[in-house]
Structure formats: structure tokens, C-alpha cells
Amino acid sequence: MKTLKIAIQKSGRLNEKSVELLKNCGLNFENYKSSLISPVSNFPLEILFLRDDDIPEYVQDGIADLGIVGENVIQETEVKVNYLQRLGFGKCSLKIAISNNSDITDLQHLNGKSIATTYPAILGKFLKENKIQSEIRNISGSVEIAPGLGLADAICDLVSTGGTLKSNGLKPFADVMSSEAVLIGRNGDEDNILIQELIQRIQSVLRAKETKYVVLNIHRDNLPKIMDLLPGVKSPTIVPLAEADWVAVHTVIPERDFWARISSLKQAGAEGIVVMPIEKIIL
Ligand SMILES: Nc1ncnc2c1ncn2[C@@H]1O[C@H](COP(=O)(O)OP(=O)(O)OP(=O)(O)O)[C@@H](O)[C@H]1O
Ligand SMILES: O=P(O)(O)OC[C@H]1O[C@H](OP(=O)(O)OP(=O)(O)O)[C@H](O)[C@@H]1O
Ligand SMILES: [Mg+2]
């Protein structure tokens, strides 16, 4: 069977998480900063380490079969690729931001103003949709510095904590798009068995990240209350303890409302609660 190629970012915001995800999928490969291609020893796959801007086109053109890249880059490069899986990391928003002392208070005030960005295509579309005519200043980085230098009236750049905006005297003004890292593939490749296998492995790792394995002790009298509080899984495992009328309950609970659930389990009489990370959940 043909060896697949997956393109990931060589260095930068998505590199570490992309490598970690693939390693958690059980793929063995060397991650030398100097090598741009790395064979996987236990799966017919090669890893290409690239600038993130090139990844969507490499996938579209068939040079790589799969890629891990931010949605912002896909939208900006305007390629045709398949979104196979959202990956839950590299979360950020593309925003228009203005100086703290700017007199711009309404989107329409951007008419006739200049906006510096490294995302001219996405910004152009956004302005067109909102019927705004601004001058787009396409620069290649350090966008946040532009208003202070008098190069532009506003900027359009990625924001996550907002720290970079703040330290450059800027404030967010309008949301253009939100983004996260996604796994992409080529149209028509959906039935490839190796791609399906990889997607399944990735999904099992992501599912496991969203949940915790919990073991708790409970008196039998309180078991019905506990059962009412436990979510989704088919049925918890109940194991008798050496102490009469006590049982251990083994279950899986979602990370998102973890503390609220633990607190209600305690109120229902749960004791000795042990929480463990889950490596994979295979359905
Ligand atoms: N502050 C942030 N927080 C979270 N995710 C971010 C942030 N900034 C960027 N990202 C996401 O990570 C991706 C890579 O960001 P990075 O800054 O490493 O890109 P780059 O400098 O263009 O890298 P390259 O050298 O590969 O071209 C972005 O395209 C975006 O999807
Ligand atoms: O809201 P914050 O958490 O401050 O993050 C926003 C910053 O992160 C990104 O740049 P990055 O630090 O990746 O550097 P780069 O511009 O060299 O890619 C982005 O271009 C912003 O400058
Ligand atoms: Mg880039």
C-alpha cells in the first residue's frame, strides 16, 4: 500500500501539539529540527515539516495526503481541501484592532481608513461582506506595530490572550473569524483505508482528552443517587469492596463539567475519589 505523507508545521505555534498528537496516536518517528522529512517506523507514513502557509496547497496538489494547519491559513490561501477533523488546539481569532485612543467606534468608520494585515484575502472578503471600503496594507509580520508607526489606522491579526494587542496600545474592535488547528485531506481520498485508520486513531486520542476515568467508593444505599449523576457511558462498572455494603464505581466523566460533577458525587456520598487520565477511547 502507498505510503502516506502528512504535512505539519516545522516550527511555531502548531508544531509541538501536532507532534504530540501524532506520537499519542502511537506513531514512532524522529523529530529532529534539522530534518524536513521523517519516516514513521510503525505505520506507512512520512511526516513533512513545512512552513504552515504552504501546507494547504501541498495537500490540494497531492504533494501531501494530509495536513495539520490553522483554519485561518486555509481560508487565506483559498484552496479546496477537505476538513477531516477539528483538533482542538491552536485556538485563536482573527480580529480587527484599533489604537486605544482611536475615534473609530463603528464598523462603517473603517471606510477610507487603512488596515495592516498578513491576511489580505480574508480581510478583503470581510470588508466586502460588510460593504466597507478600506485600504488593505499587506505586510508580512509584526502587524501590531503598524498603527503606532503611522503605517495604518487599524490592524487585522490573530489574537488569543490579547497580550500582544495590549502591549502595543491596541484594543480589539471586530471579530473576523475564529480558528483552530484542523486535519485536512484531499477531495476524493475519503475512502483510503490508511487515512481512515489515522482519523480513527486521532479521534480516539481526542475523545480521551475530553474525559477522565474516575473510581469512587460508595455505600450501596447511595448507589441509586450516584447512578443518576453519572453521564453517557453505557453503564458504570460496580465492584464489591471488602467492607460490607460498600462498592467501588468505575466510570468515565467529561472534562468540561468535571468539578461540578465531582462536587455533586461527593454530596451524594462518594468517598475516596480517584481520577486518572485516559490515553485512548476506541469505540
Ligand atoms: N496567539 C495564538 N494563539 C493560538 N494559536 C495561534 C496564535 N497565533 C497563531 N496561532 C495559530 O497557529 C498558527 C501558526 O502560528 P505561527 O505564529 O507559528 O505562524 P507562522 O509564524 O506563520 O509560522 P511559519 O513559520 O510556519 O509560517 C496560526 O496560523 C494560527 O492558526
Ligand atoms: O493574543 P496573544 O496571545 O498575544 O497572541 C497574538 C499573537 O500571536 C501571533 O503571533 P506569534 O506570537 O505566533 O508570532 P509571529 O507573529 O512571529 O507568528 C499573532 O500574530 C499575534 O501577534
Ligand atoms: Mg506562516
TrEMBL record:
Histidine biosynthesis HisG C-terminal domain segment(s): 208-280
Cofactor(s) listed: Mg(2+)
Highest taxon, organism lineage: Bacteria
Span of domain ATP phosphoribosyltransferase catalytic: 51-203
PROSITE patterns named in the record: ATP_P_PHORIBOSYLTR
Activity regulation remarks: Feedback inhibited by histidine.
One Gene Ontology molecular-function label: magnesium ion binding
Keyword Glycosyltransferase: yes
Gene3D superfamilies: 3.30.70.120, Periplasmic binding protein-like II
Top-level class of the enzyme under EC nomenclature: transferase
Database matches in NCBIfam families: hisG, HisG_C-term
Function statement: Catalyzes the condensation of ATP and 5-phosphoribose 1-diphosphate to form N'-(5'-phosphoribosyl)-ATP (PR-ATP). Has a crucial role in the pathway because the rate of histidine biosynthesis seems to be controlled primarily by regulation of HisG enzymatic activity.
Protein name per UniProt: ATP phosphoribosyltransferase
Gene of this entry: hisG
